[in-house]
Amino acid sequence: MDDKPPCPNSTNSFNIGSLKNRQRSLTKDHLIDSSIKSNGIVPSFSLLDPEFSPGHRIIDHFSNRFSFNLVNRKEKEIHKICAQELDEMVLNNSSIPNTALVITDASIKNDIATSISHIHSANRFLIKTVHHASFVTSSEAELFTIRCGINQACSLDNVSKIIIVTDFIHAARKIFNNDSSPFQIHATAILKELRKFFIANDANTIEFWECPSKLKWRFHHDADKDSKSFMVTSSYPCKISWDFCKKSDSDDIINQWKMTFQASEGKGKQFLDLLDDNLNAIEPSYTKGGLWLQMFGHSNSLCAHTTRAITNHAPTGEYRLQFFPNLDFLCLCNNYPIESRRHILHECRRFNGY
Ligand SMILES: [Zn+2]
């Protein structure tokens, strides 16, 4: 664990500690904000790290020593099957003293991440490790706790098999991913540790098991409850991670987009606000084509019809009345003077099965 976090060369001139009491009382919040945002936002990459040089990587020499057990999301009863597989895995390894079962989890509350790992061996609970960090993303916290778990498991005597159980398997997959990313600092530390572990004995292996939190599988559920049981407050100034900074910027932009969408004329006066299962208005989103198109995107004609209904640009009587007042605008049910969108969707017996 020999991270060298990036150190600013000069002291931060906005540091709240350099102000007089009166100045501090007047401008405290702004300066704390400024201090948080400007302190240590430096991504650290090491493109030339030997762990990533082709021919020398873990995947080049030890590809048969690590494996991933992923949840098959196409299964109908994934939770039941996944819990059974995890139980079987524990049963198969419970009597073997040289296996370390490492349960990892992280949770974030009020921008403070709690990373936790529980290590069991031969049916005994051995080590619990807890770390807190401010202003990091959940992926970073999850990867960090995997790193701690591996570090501690490797330091135990006679361990030849490490089993990592995580609900964030894509964080674990980043360990073996050669892309440059802010996670590299953890990935290289883990790879160095694993290299020593694999070289020490030809039989040494590591397995990564995915365990979704929703499963509430007993070992992982204990770690999950543990990680949420802490009430930590941060002390300023704090470091902020590169990823958290980017996430924070992205969240700000999306919130601004949502506010503009709701407040501006851009969406049109006729826009039909749809509700989700909890009766909240569906907000714009950029993921998977947005929340509206996700529901209708599988059919071009349905998508076109829905778009026309949402924007009220459909050939209804209401539309004809506005743009072609000489045409007929009555509804064919003869129960309503104007064939409006509201009438069609909620009242008309031609469409509502009366
Ligand atoms: Zn009608």
Keywords:
2 domains; binds zinc ion; disordered N terminus; 6-stranded mixed sheet; 354 residues; elongated
The strands making up the biggest β-sheet line up spatially as: 1-6-5-2-3-4
- Oligomeric form of this entry? single chain
Please provide the count of β strands.
Answer: 6
Name the beta content range: 5-15%
| Coarse shape | elongated
Bound heterogens, unique: zinc ion
Stretches with pLDDT under 50, minimum 5 residues: 1-10
User: What is the makeup of the main sheet?
Assistant: 6 strands, mixed
- What's the mean pLDDT score? 82
Q: What's the gyration radius in Å?
A: 28 Å
The first-level CATH class of the largest domain is given as: Alpha Beta
How many domains would you count in the coordinates? 2
Q: CATH homologous superfamily of the largest domain, by name?
A: Ribonuclease H-like superfamily/Ribonuclease H
Distance between the termini: 70 Å
Number of helices: 12
The helicity comes to 40-55%
CATH architecture of the largest domain: 2-Layer Sandwich
In N-to-C order, the SSE pattern is: HHEHEEEHEHHEHHHHHH
Quick recap of the structure?
41% of the residues lie in helices and 14% in strands.
Which SSEs are present, and which pair or pack?
Elements: H1 21-38, H2 58-61, E1 66-69, H3 78-94, E2 99-109, E3 112-121, E4 124-134, H4 138-155, E5 161-166, H5 169-173, H6 184-200, E6 205-210, H7 218-227, H8 242-263, H9 290-296, H10 300-311, H11 317-323, H12 341-347
Helix pairs in contact: 4-6
The chain binds zinc ion.
